[in-house]
Task: inverse folding
C-alpha cells in the first residue's frame, strides 16, 4: 500500500508539472478587434437629464487610430420675462443633439486600460461646430471584456438660440447660450 501511495504522489506531481509547462508554452491570445459601448450618465451643460453615449471600434494596429462616435441628447426649457411688460413670459423649449466622430488611441498600462481621443462634429439642430476630447479609464477582465468610465469634454461656441432658429424676439433679454460641457459615460468593451 505504501508503494501505491508513493507512486500516486509521483504521478500527480509529474502530471502537474507537465500541465504547468504546457500552459507556459502556449501563445498568448491578444484581442483582434474590440467594440466599445458607452451610455451617457450626465451632461454638465444640460439642466435636466441627458441621454446618448458613445460607440467605438478598437483594433491592435499600433499607429493607426481607432474610430468612434459620440452623441448626447437633452431637453431644456428657459423662461424669460419681458422688459416692457412684467406679466409677459417667453418660454423657449429646445431639444439639443450634439454628435461627434472621433479618433482615439489605447494607451497600454499594466493594470488599467486608458484610451485618449479627439473628435469633431456638429450640434444638429443649429449646425454649430463642436470639438471633443475624451478619456476612458477601464479595468480589463480576461482578454475579452473591459469595464470603463469616460469623460467627454465638448466645446461649442456660444449661441443666440433665437437668431439661429429664425425666431424674432423683441423686449426680452436673451443672452448667448453656452452648451460647452462634459459628458460622463459608463461602458464596456467586448473584444474578439
Result:
Amino acid at each position: 500500500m505504501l508503494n501505491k501511495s508513493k507512486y500516486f504522489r509521483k504521478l500527480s506531481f509529474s502530471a502537474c508539472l507537465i500541465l504547468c509547462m504546457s500552459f507556459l508554452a502556449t501563445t498568448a491570445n491578444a484581442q483582434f478587434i474590440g467594440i466599445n459601448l458607452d451610455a451617457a450618465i450626465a451632461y454638465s451643460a444640460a439642466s435636466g437629464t441627458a441621454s446618448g453615449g458613445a460607440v467605438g471600434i478598437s483594433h491592435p494596429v499600433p499607429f493607426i487610430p481607432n474610430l468612434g462616435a459620440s452623441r448626447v441628447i437633452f431637453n431644456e426649457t428657459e423662461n424669460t420675462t419681458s422688459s416692457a411688460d412684467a406679466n409677459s413670459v417667453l418660454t423657449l423649449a429646445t431639444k439639443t443633439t450634439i454628435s461627434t466622430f472621433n479618433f482615439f488611441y489605447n494607451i497600454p498600462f499594466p493594470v488599467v486600460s486608458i484610451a485618449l481621443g479627439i473628435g469633431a462634429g456638429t450640434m444638429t439642430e443649429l449646425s454649430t461646430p463642436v470639438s471633443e476630447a475624451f478619456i476612458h479609464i477601464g479595468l480589463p477582465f480576461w482578454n475579452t471584456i473591459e469595464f470603463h468610465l469616460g469623460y467627454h469634454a465638448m466645446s461649442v461656441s456660444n449661441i443666440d438660440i433665437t437668431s439661429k432658429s429664425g425666431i424674432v424676439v423683441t423686449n426680452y433679454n436673451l443672452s448667448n447660450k453656452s452648451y460647452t460641457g462634459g459628458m460622463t459615460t459608463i461602458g464596456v468593451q467586448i473584444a474578439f
The two ends are 51 Å apart (CA to CA). The chain has two helices and eight strands. The CA atoms of residues 84 and 171 lie 6 Å apart. Residues 32-191 form a domain with the Porin fold (CATH 2.40.160.20).
